[in-house]
Amino acid sequence: MTCEGCANAAKKVLSKLGEDVIKVDADISSRKLTVTTNLQSDVILNALKKTGKNCSLVS
Q: CB 1: neighbour CB atoms within 10 A?
């Protein structure tokens, strides 16, 4: 994630997953997106891949 546009795209895709996505925080400088959710990580990763950006799970 290199810009606010990328962060907004990720947030938009995740918002479509409904209220199971509790919170999304984007940190452009560290290129990280923190997602608080009740969903499985593979559901989140698959949704984020729809943005066309590379993503991986850091736990």
A: 21
Reported as a single tens digit per residue, the pLDDT across 32-53 is 999 999 999 999 999 999 999 8
Residue 28 lies in a domain: yes
Whether 56 is in a domain gets the answer no
Q: How many separate domains does the chain show?
A: 1
pTM of the model: 0.86
DSSP per position, 1-58: --SHHHHHHHHHHHHTTGGGEEEEEEETTTTEEEEEESS-HHHHHHHHHTTT------
